[in-house]
Every structure is written in structure tokens, then in C-alpha cells.
Amino acid sequence: xxxxxxxxxxxxxxxLGGSGEIGMNVNLYGTQGKWLMVDLGxxxxxxxxxxxDLVFADLEFxxxxxxxxxxxxxxxxxxxHIGAVPYFAEELGVPLYATPFTAxxxxxKLAEAGIADRVRLIEIDDNExxxxxxxxxxxxxxxxxxxxxxxxxxxxxxxxxxxxxxxxLDDEPIIGEPTTQEELExxxxxGVLALVxxxxxxxxxxxxxxxxxxxxxxxxxxxxxxxxxxxxxxFASNVARMDTLGEVxxxxxxxxxxxGRSLDRILEVSxxxxxxxxxxxxxxxxxxxxxxxxxxxxxxxxxxGEPRAALSRIxxxxxxxxxxxGDVVLFSSRQIxxxxxxxxxxxxxxxxxxxxxxxxxxSMIHVxxxxxxxxxxxxxxxxxxxxxxxVHGEMRHMQEQAxxxxxxxxGYAVVQKNGDLVRLAPGKPAKLAEVQTGxxxxxxxxxxxxxxxxxxxxxxxxxNGAIFVSLDGRNKxxxxxxxxxxxxxxxxxxxxxxxxVAKAIKRLKGKSERSDVAEATRLAVRRAAQRxxxxxxxxxxxxxx
Length: 545
Description:
By secondary structure, the protein is an alpha/beta fold. It has 16 helices and 27 strands. Helix 4 links the parallel strand 7 and strand 8.
């Protein structure tokens, strides 16, 4: 590797996102002077970024080397693998590769961004090998919680990499035909240098479970609630679950009503690509409300408590679809860490109205799309990789998968984090360097650093509030405080703060610099606020005179 990180006759791996976290997957492979990107995802913001919805990996490393990037291969259509495409694909300027279902989701994103005619999107069929620069690529279907989940087999001059994407083993996958054990064993016999593998469910001691079992569980559960309006909430992208719910509705004599724009989009894209062709024709909201309560099955987004999603609005009584005492909500999805408060609030609103709720803890109505330990061990045995590189997990997940892999006889396990440049071949795998990485956020219409001044200031304002002070020509202050817990004490605080300002300006002893007066005023008001509230607010002084 040259000092500028250009790969030579070697195989390099670099995660810019998705290693040390769940979500925002961006992975790079380098050889023969070229780079290949696998996935270009995002994650959703939490409380650490006030006013922000979307978070991206910082792509500065590969943006600086865009001339050496040969393409972007997308494993499947979940947002943490394709969500950043409309924000960065045009700038990176290389073709995107995807199988038809994923390609249609991406195509719509590009169209919404107004760049569909400026980004080349190439559709690839399963098991069709194609070359991108020095990389040979083959898509291998694996079961997951979305149609057309794929591993990517990457052939390089130094050896082959099996990049799993998100996956599981499933004897009854409902949608698609995953690569068989025999086919995976054949790949292993031909030699696998490195297995770059999903770590999400490594602490699960049992297999993740089958979609076929969920179908049986949902049919049994819905059948229990004759005469009641039943709502099922699930991840919109889970095409197999949608297929199952269509079957359940038909088997229980219920009409289907779909609530949520993302569900509408997935249904449309699925049917355009040959999936869900037997899904019942949905009824509209008005029709659903006119039907007898036991004659409708509602499928809705919002199981994670998203405030604008259908289920949250139904829980608030702010949606055309209504639930009332005795009705039932089935949570056919897992609770994503970090969403506990939002989900709890929504469930309490439903409970207050006498609505029964059932989760996967009470009934077999959901299974994960990620592998448990037995599935990981099975894949290790079939592929027999020389090197294991855990990705797609927090550090505790990746460390645990490394221990698991080494315990089964894999020779090397490389635990890396975003920004660690790793040489996989030749020789023993090793970390070579740390490169620029980090997070960007979509703040309004702008993409800015997550640790920039705007976000930092917003955090400070949220924690401590703000005070605006206006000084007229006689240095008489007008004070307005926002977000301070003063309430009935505000008038006394204001009077004391004004006295403190007068004293501070007087102590300047005739100094006439406006900046000195403004700074003295700022400090005086902040100290007064701290005395009265215990807070250290941001104070801004404007001199109008």
C-alpha cells in the first residue's frame, strides 16, 4: 500500500460505517489500485442530534479517491444499506449495481432526488457473475426480512471474499429461494479467504426462526379474535410478512386495509417485480371503517413509535382508521434499541383505550432477519474461511462473533471499527492505518458534520436554554429568557439581572469599546441565570444604540 492508501498487489478492507454500530453500512475493498464499495446506507437520528432525522457515514476518504472507485454494489433494499444513495451517488460518479427489487427501490429514491438521469443503475440477476475493474462479483440469495437479500461473493487476485450482507437461515422463507447448503459448501471447497459477516444477533443462542412458523403463529393469533378489529404492525420492507398477512386475511375471512406510505410503496414495488401477486386487493380507510369489526385486518406502519406513522396516529385518535375497546394490535416486529420510550408511550395510549396488545414475547408472530449462533456456526462450517471479519454490529457484537469464529477453528478473526484500514492478503491479516471517518447529518436541506458547531449549539440550547439581551443607546438592557425553569420567579430574576448588568458596566470605568460592554453584559446575565436556575444558558447580547 502506498502512503496515500492506494492499494497495490494486496487486498484491503475498510469500513466507513456499520462497524461498531448497527446501521449506516458502508464497506470498501481495495486491490490493484482500485476500490469497490459494498452498500451505501444511513441510520436514523436519536436524541444526540436535535432537529436531525438522517445520519450518514463521512465518505471523505473515498471522495478524495473517487477516480479509483469502480462501482457500488448494493446487497439489499433496507435503508441502512441503500438510504444514503440519493445523497452521495451522483457525487461519487460510479455505477450502482443491484438486483431488480432493490434496483426499483433505488430508482425511486433517485427519481425523488431528481437525479435518476445522472446516476447509472445496473440491474443484475442472481448468480450472474460480472466484473467491476479487478473485482469479480456474484450475487448469492440469502434469506432476510426483505425480498432479494443477498450475499456478495467478491473474487480478487488475492482470494475470494464472502460478504454476507444481512442474512439468516430459513427452511420456509416464503419469498425467494436462498442459496442452498450444498451450494455454499461448494463455494467453501473452492476456497474462501475472508468471511465478512453480519454480527447483529450473535448473542442469540438459538436459530432466528422461520417465516413459515410466523405464518402459522399469525394465523392462530388472528383466528382467536373473531368479531374484533385486528391491526398488525410490521416493518414495511418485510415482503414475506406482507405475503403471510395476505394469506392470514384470506384464511380468516377478513378484508385487508394497508395504512402507511412505505407499505404502499413496498406493495407496489413488490408486485412490479413478481412478488405479492396473490395479495388481496386492499380496501380504503372508509370501507374498512364501515365493515363489521371482525371482517377487517389492518396492516400498519409505526410499530417503533414513530410519531408520524400510522399506528402512532391511530393511538392518538388522529387517523381515519380507528381502534376502540376490545380491538387488538399485534406487534409483528422487534423493538429496536433506542425506541423503548416512543413505543412505551404509544402502547400506553392504546392501553388507556382498552385495546389489547400482543408482542412476539407472548406469541410466535415475529422472527428476526439476522442469524443466531447456530446459524453463524453452520455458515462457518460450510464456507471454511481463513479469516473472519465481523461487521454490522456494536463492538460487543463483533468481539463476540470473533470469539465464536475462533472457537470453531477459523484461523484469524479481525475485529475492526469504522476507519480501520485492514490488509487481508497477502500474509497474516493486520491493521495498517486509521483513516478519516465520522458522521454527517442531514440538517434541514444541508449535509453537515455531526460534531459541527450548529449541532453542538443546539444541544447546549436544549440543555441550558438561552437568554437574549438588547442594550439601547444608554446601555439599558431588555432581557428575554427562553427555556429557563424560572416561571413565577422570572420577574425577580429579570430585575436582579438588570441590576447586575448596570454594576458590570459601571465597573468598566469609562471604557467605551462596544465589545467590552457586550461581554460584561453577557457574563453578568449568565451569572444571574445560574444563581436563579442552576443553568448556564447561552447568552447573546445585541447593542441597538
